[in-house]
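Two proteins, back to back. First:
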Amino acid sequence: MSNTRFFAKESYGVRMKKKKLNIAFAGGGTGGHVTPISSLIQYANDHKQLSEQIQQMYRFGSTGQMEEEFASKHDSVIFVPIRSGKLRRYWTIKSTLENLRDVAYFNAGYVQSLWYLQANKIDVVFCKGWYVAMPVVFAAASLRIPVIVHESDIHAGLVNSIAAKVAKKSFDGFPGVLKESTHVGQILSWDLLEKDEELDLFTIQPGKKTLMVMCGSQGSEAVFKRILEELDSEWQIVKNLNIVIVLWVLNTSWKKKFETHLNVTTYDFLNHHELATLFEIADVTITRGSATTLAEMEYFDLPKVIVPLPSHDQPLNAKRYAQHHDDIVVAQDNMWELFKAVKFHLDHPRKKKTRKTDIFAAHKAIWESLLGDK
């Protein structure tokens, strides 16, 4: 398949019309890979000058995972299910067998991607990372379809490190992460600009400081257990706080454990309009080290106690925020320091800055590259 930019004549030798493009988005696994793609798609839908240049958007990903769920929120997107394997970079008998199995999955995903990219006449592929993007990137490279990459973390993941070698253009959220990449910051959600005035906040008592807890669905139990221990103690600072906890889908079983405490409000799920409302009123937050989430909170000058997942790139993200934004990092195996860090932020409140960051800087740069001449 040729990916030469085609033009159709409107009148002899006078006007030329650009061909509308078919664009594929690849990446999944976690919210840090999925929500930025969703934000890019919505940005295009909201800007007529972009949407008029697009024939169709396709979302490649795994069936039944977060990427399919988020793709279903956009009527302008067709979801394309593919198989993919995961490379485990530790060596046990079990991991070796799993890697051998997943090589077969990857090969199946590669063949599927070759077929779908050609059948749908894809003009350009955007890669956000994670293993489900790998077969799509390899297939695009085989077909000489341009690839655009964005890396969120301070240390590039395996998939994006490989994808950047064949990419037409690479972008990063932290400077210099990918070789010859352009620094554009994180892909933040457009919904952060508009608060949800109807969000139920009746349990948040005025006059009390508010602690927001948002640790995602992955590995949140250690944080939740520590919060419950403090709530059951006699420490007055915890009892005198409004505590707002976003559980997310996999943690809803914790709701009953928290609802016995009158100063705790739990939400199963919040969209970005609702999150913006809480980011605005919170005095301090406990969070994981997702680069996208940290950037969203920083946009609201929200002091952070960061408990990074130890097995991901999150510790490096957290370290950078501690160095550049006076946030505090608490290791997951040292949870006794958690509320000491919360108290420090409450005793040393951060002044709100005038926002100068263009929340759409990354969107503009990436879409310019996606729709530009190839």
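And the second protein:
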Amino acid sequence: MEQRGAHISFSHVGLVYDDGAEDTEALHDLSFEAQPGEAIALIGPSGCGKSTTLHLTAGLLASTTGEVAVNGNRVGHPRQETAFIAQDLGLFPWKTVLQNAALGLVIRKVPKREAYDRAHAALDQVGLSGFDRSYPKELSGGMKQRLALARALAMDADLLLMDEPLSAVDALLRESLQDLLLDLWKDRGHTQMLVTHSIEEAVYLGRRILVFSERPATLVADVSNPQMGEDGWRDSAAFAAKCHEVRSALAQGGEGRAR
């Protein structure tokens, strides 16, 4: 796998929301790095700050303390090489499949012909060729997931951020889409960061699994998962053992030593 991904660095990052009545601390002294081409999964209790971490990485939020950097540059605004798939997928119902796939490029003022050529290629990668003129309401849940992924791929991003992108589909389709994400990561070599509530999904798609505490989020375990991506990984005894390790780290809430 070609290493063409971005390097991510969180250095003593804290974030406090001011909601007018009282301050809410979302993140506390969060530090970690992701090397180029790594696949990182974030897991922890609901509302603990996982999505906030993605938004900081994407430049959609600014930290209160500390520094978030991508490729050595402090993140102060969204960067063109970062693709973000939100939990609601962010599809526009009045635009066709092709227009949705090309949207990120159009916003970046890529010439229209190039934008649509790249969107076509991305739709083909995710198995949606032939649906160019359809609208999101005509797609199944899994096809909508694929369309959101195609839009990210069309941008040729070196960093892919995903906020529970597969939470709304059934179990078998979810596994199929997980396989697609894994294959694309292997093929493209981008850095990816996935927020999930599923231990099994974290272990299947994360070369490292970062376990967060309850809010304010701190990093309670950094679980290495070097067998991720190997053939037969999902059905192996080692996979089950790694799931147990992550489950224990969640339950202990950081009493265990970070790995």
